[in-house]
Amino acid sequence: MPQTPRAHVCVLASLNFPDISAEDVALIRRFTRLALTTLIELGASYELWDTTEALDNPSAAAEFDGLLLLGGGDIDGSCYGVSTPNPKAYGVDARADRDAFAAIAAAEAAERPIFGICRGSQLLNVARGGTIIPDIVDYKLHHGAPGEPEFVDEPIEIVAGTRLASILDAERITGRSGHHQAVDRVGEGLVVAARALDGIVEGIEDPSRFYLGVQWHPEDEYGPEADRLRLFSAFVSAAEQARQGRVAAVASAAVSE
């Protein structure tokens, strides 16, 4: 950890979930490790919260300078109004979902920047009342076929004029994808920031604040390093600004007393 961090980040991850395979355990740990390493390289410190077990106080996410939500299992359909079980769903843990929503609500209320990846992006959408596509039927752009590598290089179109476009400084990127679900109806106050070539939503954001989600995995070392650094740098910079604002507010309050 840096001795004098630019920001202190709460990282929410699901390192284990129901019926997880050994391959997915290794995959999630590899992705999480690179995400945490990137934060450190950018001068941020972090605390990792694993939602495999119930969080003691998810609302304490508000005490950090930013909230990063990583990938994991599918969100319970009941969270977005679907009562029929999805036969393709995996890793569903409604308690972990509730903990994540509580952390998101607390961080947003405290005006902290929030960045979600894959499951994290979907959580951000559902937290705002949006819905999820239960299973992408024509999946070829989004994940490998049975018996093939799960992750594929996916062309992703970035929507002009969005925060995401300004961060990535590109009209199209190649993302590492391995998802069978995606954002369907976009949540309140959010806009689409990226799409796959088939129109599937690959990025969402709130134009008024740093509330950003991407469906692909920039924390996969087999993807473009430059894009990962741009995304994480933007998030850490926003968290640093939040930290500076909080310090200034405390100092101002102390002077007035």
UniProtKB/TrEMBL annotation:
Any Pfam family: Peptidase_C26
Molecular function as annotated in GO: gamma-glutamyl-gamma-aminobutyrate hydrolase activity; transferase activity
Superkingdom of source: Bacteria
Keyword Metal-binding part of the UniProt annotation: no
GO annotation terms (biological process): polyamine catabolic process
Transferase keyword on record: yes
This protein's UniProt keywords: Glutamine amidotransferase, Transferase
Gene Ontology cellular-component annotations: cytosol
Entry-linked InterPro entries: Class_I_gatase-like, Peptidase_C26, PuuD-like
Name of this protein: Glutamine amidotransferase
Organism classification: Bacteria, Bacillati, Actinomycetota, Actinomycetes, Mycobacteriales
